[in-house]
Design goal:
Layout (H helix, E strand, L loop, with lengths): L13 H23 L11 H17 L6 E8 L12 E8 L34
Length: 132
């Protein structure tokens, strides 16, 4: 029988998630749409298998480098209009591995990006973007 997994402490309620997304759409999203002249992507999707594969890769490569507690940072990005299939340069989200090298004395959000491990992109987005 599989071991029961506890709900992570950093989970937020559906109501809180809706509040956060509505705040983004109502403020930043509207400003971006006005500035860009089109609605931009603001939700991104990966399968669990894709995310698990990337997490396993980061763990493996970090361990080989002697990094004991690696992390992953999320970054907003935007495609160049000339490389975007819709020609607009939509937003994207990508993940970058982090971790302090042995003896660096850093922890958590202050960990440095690990540029020796590739970042992860290639998610999909609904169109129009899905609201939470």
């Amino acid at each position: 029988m599989a071991k029961k997994v506890q709900k992570p402490q950093k989970c937020i309620s559906v109501e809180k998630a809706k509040e956060l997304h509505n705040n983004w759409c109502g403020k930043r999203g509207k400003s971006l749409e006005k500035s860009l002249g089109f609605e931009d992507a603001h939700e991104f999707h990966w399968t669990l298998a894709e995310l698990e594969e990337y997490v396993a890769y980061v763990k493996q490569e970090s361990e080989a480098q002697g990094i004991k507690n690696p992390g992953i940072r999320a970054y907003m990005g935007a495609y160049s209009p000339s490389k975007c299939k819709m020609g607009r340069g939509y937003s994207t989200l990508f993940f970058a591995p982090t971790g302090s090298r042995p003896g660096a004395g850093k922890d958590g959000g202050d960990d440095e990006n690990n540029y020796d491990i590739d970042a992860f992109n290639g998610g999909s987005s609904g169109w129009p973007p899905n609201k939470y």
